[in-house]
Specification:
2 domains; six-stranded mixed β-sheet; disordered N terminus; Spore Coat Polysaccharide Biosynthesis Protein SpsA, Chain A; 20 strands; globular; alpha/beta
Length: 290
């Protein structure tokens, strides 16, 4: 099988890879104990959000979906369980291209839908329009497609055809088969070369997107998930005031929270006031400047 083409002459066969190996250095101190992929947004880990989005496309199980892990990889492995094929990178992360290269044998001739675990996209049912599924619609199995959001300045550095990348791309096997399992990123190894030869296109995405790379963006993604109300896990206890916040499983809110994320099991004590903050645990709270 070559070029990601089906042996039956139908649509190209596609697998999916969720990239979850990174250290999340910009999100520190949140990622000092938990890998970025397991940080909760709207009380669902980013990794689980990505897997659910792929499941909505019919991509499930270790034959169709792979997840790579490195930084705090044991936590990622435990979270994934038997839901996907696991590629654990030893030592330092291999980067986005190296991580795909490390999975070449598993990919085995198929096209690859690649998603960044840290990408938060609005629920397609709540925010209709071109979405991840549009990357595969009519795809020829030979070109690179990126999901992109129109940039305010179409000529600024880092854009593709006037768009910022928003977390998902589809790659043909012909460009994956030669990727080595050594550190490299997809921008330089695949996307820019494909762009230079006219074999890269962008599928516009106009919904809500946050890369959750910083505490401010992480908080913003959670507030989007909460909407105009509070999103409280049923097992949490709230006796204080809770407005436009996200409260995780087993958390206790006896104080006052506004535009705040309270992680599972964390506590906000009586008389305590949190605004624009992330309460991770008793000894870690991150204030976010708005």
């Amino acid at each position: 099988m070559t070029g990601g083409e089906s042996t039956t002459g139908g649509p190209p066969e596609v697998c999916a890879v969720v990239l979850a190996a990174g250290e999340g250095t910009r999100l520190r101190p949140l990622t000092e104990r938990v890998p970025k992929a397991l940080c909760p947004v709207g009380n669902v880990t980013l990794l689980d959000r990505a897997l659910a989005r792929l499941a909505g496309l019919g991509l499930t199980g270790p034959r169709s979906v792979a997840v790579n892990a490195c930084y705090l990889g044991d936590q990622v492995v435990e979270q994934v369980g038997h839901r996907a094929h696991l590629s654990v990178e030893r030592g330092d992360p291999l980067g986005t291209a190296g991580g795909i290269g490390n999975l070449r044998d598993w990919i085995g001739g198929r096209g690859v839908l690649v998603g960044n675990a840290d990408a938060y996209l609005a629920d397609p049912q709540a925010d209709p329009g071109p979405d991840v599924a549009a990357l595969l619609d009519g795809w020829d199995g030979e070109t690179v497609r990126l999901l992109g959001r129109p940039a305010p300045n179409p000529t600024e550095p880092g854009t593709f055809d006037g768009h910022h990348f928003v977390g998902f791309s589809v790659l043909p096997w012909r460009l994956v088969r030669d990727l080595p399992p050594t550190f490299a990123d997809l921008v330089r190894a695949v996307w820019r070369p494909a762009e230079a030869t006219g074999s890269l296109s962008v599928v516009p995405y106009r919904g809500a997107f946050y890369d959750t790379g910083t505490p401010a963006d992480y908080l913003a993604a959670n507030l989007h998930a909460a909407g105009d109300a509070a999103l409280v896990d049923p097992s949490a206890t709230v006796t204080g005031r809770c407005r436009r916040s996200v409260v995780g499983a087993g958390a206790h809110i006896a104080g006052d929270v506004l535009r705040t994320v309270v992680w599972p099991g964390a506590t906000v004590r009586p008389g305590e006031v949190l605004r624009d903050a992330i309460r991770v645990s008793a000894d870690l709270t991150v204030a976010v400047r708005q």
